[in-house]
Every structure is written in structure tokens, then in C-alpha cells.
């Protein structure tokens, strides 16, 4: 955890007259809030019917942080960035896959082929593409489709960034807007024709718009920082209001018709985009930034991927049930499930993921080695 937080400090603070607003720390805090909202929703916490929108916030934030690295590819360039992301993702997934297989074997007395197929799909980073296959058992690895989407998007983004470096960055914004528009139009047509929201949102091609908006947010935040703009704060306040209202008022995931989702989902994604741009540019309200900088939220945000991938298995082991995330005996036991998921995720992050990330960050790049020679 300490290594992860330390590695992100080079973009940590922006000083404006009379105030100091942190960017990376506040974004980690935002990811922490989103992660807690998602896990609490999946565990069936009352009062959070729209808690699933935390996934949208995580996607936009991921796109922003990736975009910032793509715009400023230090420490070995784009190839090094891709290797670092892939290896770190493997460090997140491998322990939970091994533990999940052990749980499945202990529960059934054998390893069925669908469980093994799910484990292979997870490690191959294509789990989101096999969710509709009846030959794959999703009871243990239900949450890990999100990680597959992020891995696929990272590869595509790095390849696109290398292409941009050849043909020039002037086309970057145009291409991003075209991709966002194309994906949104396909989604609108699908949902408008009565397609189910689950079918759309469990497919990687229909979740890339939030990630693409995150990339665009990185570029826009950079422009706002260089211009020392201080007028974007109200947009962040409005976006935050939309997100809070969505968490409290929206129905559960997939519990609405196509036309409603057509309108609501783009609004939620854009609201997350506004908040991320404000935090990333240092123009967010100071009170919001200070709240998100609280250490527990930043720790959870830095380890969000580990918490997410372990949360379902933890709930299964503690009796949450293989067929869902119903509240398990009231608020007390719900708190136990949520706390255990966070604790196990933090420990896995600290013992496995953080050392791997630190080692990759300390390893000199080939270019740096040639320079020294």
C-alpha cells in the first residue's frame, strides 16, 4: 500500500492561490468510495439500489489515470507501461484464482470443468467474453469480468497511443470522441429496441465509453491545469449531485427497461467524467478534495482491484451464498462481510500486488541502462 501511494506522488499536488488541492490522492479516495459502494450494493445493503454505478466511476477514473500515463509516458515509455500493467494485473488475479479453485474443490469434492474454464478465462483476461456461456461456472469468479475489460482496454489504449505518436496527437481527441459516439449510439439502439441492460453492460464493447471518457478527462484536466482555470468547480458539484442521487434513487442493475437505461446511463457516465476532470485538474471544491484525501479512503482506493476480486469469494466462504449477495442476517453481519472483503483485499494488495508494483517501478528501463553505459 505504501509503495503504491508513494509511486503516485509525482502528480500529487497542484497549488493555486490560497489553496493546495491534491489530485492523485483525491482520485484514490474517489475510487475508495466507489469501491465501497459497489461491494455494499453487491452484498445487498439497503438504501443503495443504485450502488452499481460505482463501477462507472471506477472505469472513468481508471481511464483518467491511464490517460495521464499515456500523455506522459515516463519510466521506459509505452512498452514499459504495458508490461507493468499486465504483470500487476496478473499479481491481482493469480492469488484469488488459486483460492477460488481451492474453495470450489473443497465445496464440491472435485473441480468441475466449468469452474476450471472460468479460471482459465480469468487468467487469459477474456472472462467478460464468456459470461453468457453455459459451460462456464460463474459462482466463484463473478466479479472478475471487470478486470478483463480493463486489461483489454489498456492494451488497445497503449497501441493507439503508439499510433498517435507516429501520426501526431492532433487526431487523438477527434478519434476518442468518434469512439465514444459510436459506442453510445450502439448502446442507445440496443436498449431502445428493448435489449436488456445486463446483456449490454457485461460486454466489454459497451463499457469502453466510460474508459474513453476517462482518457479524454486526462487531456482536458491537463489543459485546465496549464491554463490555471478555476471555473470548473461547479461542474464537479453538479456531477457529484447526479451520482449521489443515482445511488439512492436508481433501481437495481438490470431492473429497468431499455429506454430508461438509454437516458440514464450516459448521464451517470458524464457525471463521473465531470467529477474526475475537476479532481484531476485541481479545480474541485476544496471540501470535496479534503474529504476524499482521508487516509482510509485512499488506502481502499489504491487497493480497489484486489478488494473487488476477493469480495465475492470472501462472501461465499463466510456464508453469503453461491447464488447471490443477499443481506446475510442484518446490518451486523453485512458489516462483517464488507469489512472482511476490504481487509482481505488490502492484505492481498500489500503482500502480493504492492511488492510486484514496487519491483517493476524500481527496475531500470532499457533506455536508461543504455544511457548510463
Task: Describe the overall structure.
It is a single chain. This protein has helices at 2-7, 24-42, 54-71, 77-108, 113-123, 145-167, 172-192, 197-201, 208-226, 233-249, 258-281, 286-292, 295-302, 304-317, 331-362, 366-372; strands spanning 13-16, 19-22. The chain is an all-alpha fold and 373 residues long. It has a two-stranded antiparallel sheet. α2 packs across α12 and α9 packs parallel to α11. The longest helix is centred in the N-terminal third of the chain and has 32 residues, at 77-108. The radius of gyration is 20 Å and the shape is globular.
Short synopsis of the structure:
This protein has 373 residues and is mostly helical. Helix content is 71%, strand content 2%. The relative contact order is 0.18.
Radius of gyration: 20 Å
Order of helices and strands: HEEHHHHHHHHHHHHHHH
| Sequence of strands across the biggest β-sheet | 1-2
- The total beta strand count reads 2
Could you estimate the helical fraction of the residues in percent? Answer: over 70%
Structural class: mainly alpha
Shape: globular
β-strand percent reads under 5%
Descriptive keywords:
single chain; 373 residues; mainly alpha; 16 helices; globular; disordered C terminus
List strands and helices in order, with pairings.
Blueprint: H1 2-7, E1 13-16, E2 19-22, H2 24-42, H3 54-71, H4 77-108, H5 113-123, H6 145-167, H7 172-192, H8 197-201, H9 208-226, H10 233-249, H11 258-281, H12 286-292, H13 295-302, H14 304-317, H15 331-362, H16 366-372
Helix pairs in contact: 2-3, 2-12, 2-13, 2-14, 3-6, 3-9, 3-11, 4-5, 4-6, 4-14, 4-15, 7-9, 7-11, 9-11, 10-11, 14-15
Amino acid at each position: 500500500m505504501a509503495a503504491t501511494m508513494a509511486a503516485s506522488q509525482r502528480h500529487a499536488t497542484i497549488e493555486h492561490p490560497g489553496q493546495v488541492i491534491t489530485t492523485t490522492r483525491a482520485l484514490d479516495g474517489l475510487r475508495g468510495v466507489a469501491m465501497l459502494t459497489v461491494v455494499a450494493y453487491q452484498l445487498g445493503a439497503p438504501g443503495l439500489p443504485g450502488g452499481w454505478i460505482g463501477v462507472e466511476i471506477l472505469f472513468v477514473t481508471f481511464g483518467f489515470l491511464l490517460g495521464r500515463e499515456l500523455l506522459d509516458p515516463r519510466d521506459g515509455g509505452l512498452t514499459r507501461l504495458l508490461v507493468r500493467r499486465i504483470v500487476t494485473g496478473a499479481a491481482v488475479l493469480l492469488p484469488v484464482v488459486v483460492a477460488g479453485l481451492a474453495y470450489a474443490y473443497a465445496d464440491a469434492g472435485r473441480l468441475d470443468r466449468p469452474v476450471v474454464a472460468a479460471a482459465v478465462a480469468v487468467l487469459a483476461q477474456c472472462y467478460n467474453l464468456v459470461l453468457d456461456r453455459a459451460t462456464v461456472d460463474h459462482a466463484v469468479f463473478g466479479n472478475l469480468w471487470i478486470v478483463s475489460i480493463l486489461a483489454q482496454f489498456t492494451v488497445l489504449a497503449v497501441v493507439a497511443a503508439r499510433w498517435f505518436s507516429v501520426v501526431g496527437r492532433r487526431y487523438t481527441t477527434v478519434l476518442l470522441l468518434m469512439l465514444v459516439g459510436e459506442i453510445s449510439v450502439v448502446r442507445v439502439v440496443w436498449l431502445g429496441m428493448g435489449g436488456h441492460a445486463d446483456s449490454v453492460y457485461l460486454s466489454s464493447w459497451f463499457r469502453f465509453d466510460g474508459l474513453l471518457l476517462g482518457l479524454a478527462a486526462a487531456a482536458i484536466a491537463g489543459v485546465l491545469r496549464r491554463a490555471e482555470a478555476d471555473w470548473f468547480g461547479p461542474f464537479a458539484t453538479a456531477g457529484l449531485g447526479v451520482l449521489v442521487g443515482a445511488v439512492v434513487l436508481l433501481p437495481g442493475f438490470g431492473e429497468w427497461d431499455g429506454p430508461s437505461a438509454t437516458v440514464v446511463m450516459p448521464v451517470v457516465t458524464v457525471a463521473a467524467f465531470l467529477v474526475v476532470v475537476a479532481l484531476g485538474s485541481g479545480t474541485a471544491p476544496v471540501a470535496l478534495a479534503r474529504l476524499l484525501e482521508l487516509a482510509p479512503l485512499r488506502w481502499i482506493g489504491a487497493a480497489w482491484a484486489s478488494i473487488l476480486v476477493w469480495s465475492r469469494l470472501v462472501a461465499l466462504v463466510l456464508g453469503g451464498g453461491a447464488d447471490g449477495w443477499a443481506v446475510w442476517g442484518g446490518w451486523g453481519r453485512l458489516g462483517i462481510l464488507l469489512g472482511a472483503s476490504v481487509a482481505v483485499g488490502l492484505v492481498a494488495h500489500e503482500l502480493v500486488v504492492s511488492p510486484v508494483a514496487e519491483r517493476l517501478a524500481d527496475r531500470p528501463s532499457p533506455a536508461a541502462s543504455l544511457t548510463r553505459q
